[in-house]
Amino acid sequence: MQSIKQVLRNFNPTTDKYISREFQSFGIRLAEELNDYKHRGLYIKLAKTVHRSILEKALTFAVDSQATNKGALFMWKLKELRTKGQSNKETKQERI
Fold it and tell me: What separation in angstroms does the CA of 50 have from each of 1, 57, 84?
């Protein structure tokens, strides 16, 4: 995972003029690692709204696999992690 310092160091305003925020850079990185540049807007939105740790777990799961469609595998794992997180919150509330 890159720190903000590394992202800013690699940022070139002449070539990356449409990427002005860190979450945009992370979304583009997700699209590149998953070889799914067609859906880069989706990954930027996910980078903005979903917690980074969940995205990192789903990304490592998808990249480490031998799947041909890593984008679909990433989305499936992301859905699983999000539902697991919601069920954990519900059980914690029931205990209280």
Answer: 16, 12, 14
Instruction: Dig out the tokens for 26 from the structure.
Output: 């992370």
**What confidence tens digit (pLDDT) does each residue in 38-95 have?**
999 999 999 999 999 999 999 999 999 999 999 999 999 999 999 998 888 777 777 7
State pTM to two decimals.
0.75
In the block, tokens 């696999």 appear at 65
How far apart, in whole angstroms, are the C-alpha atoms of residue 91 and residue 59?
Answer: 27
Are 80 and 55 in contact by the 8 Å Cβ rule? The answer is no
- 19, 25 contact by CB (below 8 A): yes
59 backbone φψ class: left, alpha, beta (φ>0; ψ -120 to 50): alpha
Between residues 45 and 11, which one has the greater pLDDT? Answer: 45
Going by C-alpha positions, the residue among 4, 35, 42, 43 that lies closest to residue 21 is: 4
